[in-house]
UniProtKB/TrEMBL annotation:
Organism: Lacicoccus alkaliphilus DSM 16010
Gene field: pyrF
Function: Catalyzes the decarboxylation of orotidine 5'-monophosphate (OMP) to uridine 5'-monophosphate (UMP).
Molecular function GO terms recorded: orotidine-5'-phosphate decarboxylase activity
Keyword set, alphabetical order: Decarboxylase, Lyase, Pyrimidine biosynthesis
Coiled coil, from the record: none
Protein name according to UniProt: Orotidine 5'-phosphate decarboxylase
Amino acid sequence: MNTPIIALDFREYETVKEFLGQFDEKLFVKVGLELYLSNGPKIVEEIRQMGHDIFLDLKLYDIPNTVGKAMEGIGRLDIQMTNVHAQGGTAMMKRAVESFKDGNPDGKLIAVTQLTSMSDEMVAREQQSVLTLTESVVHYSALAQNAGLDGVVASPLEAEIIHEKTHSDFLTVTPGIRLEEDSNDDQVRVVTPEDAKKMKSDYIVVGRSITQAENPVDKYNKIKSIWEGSTVG
Ligand SMILES: O=c1ccn([C@@H]2O[C@H](COP(=O)(O)O)[C@@H](O)[C@H]2O)c(=O)[nH]1
């Protein structure tokens, strides 16, 4: 069972250090735009030195040459996972995978399909899509697989159908995770860790439920034990 990925959506390195200092185990953490843009690549080195694995979530989306060049830089970082937007297309994803794996052959490159903050209605109205949200996620997953990527970011709601339509190692990395007790926010496609497990997500990504909790370590352990199917605290 893959450990839950904690989204470190903080700005300051000091806050990250304080947050991670509460844990006495190796974690898988996500560094997103807020933290990376405020601190630069050194934040990756610092977190790696603390012994944690990193998903660098920059969601690159540009023309193939630009993404390829940016991925050369990302490929030199000591990270376990990074991503692009599948909507950038096959040529862009192929360039991304070539450039990233050249520097980091063991790192995973995945593609965002439809953000978990999007609803069926938003996809229909704002993207003017003739496909439903789920069809669109399946379509982008197929593009990502054919371009040679390792998996996708989607909601657990789509994990099962993605697994049906892709090869057996293709990964589903799924944010939008909330416990029943958590408050509603900008996430639309929200799923509990228990349901994410039933729906066959490979990884869950959890941010504010843990980072904003009164006791982040207790909350992480609670989510982890539900996800792993052991004691539900
Ligand atoms: O579709 C997506 C893609 C990425 N994310 C990121 O995951 C975390 C979720 O944080 P929460 O606080 O648990 O909502 C956040 O960093 C997003 O940028 C996503 O939510 N949905």
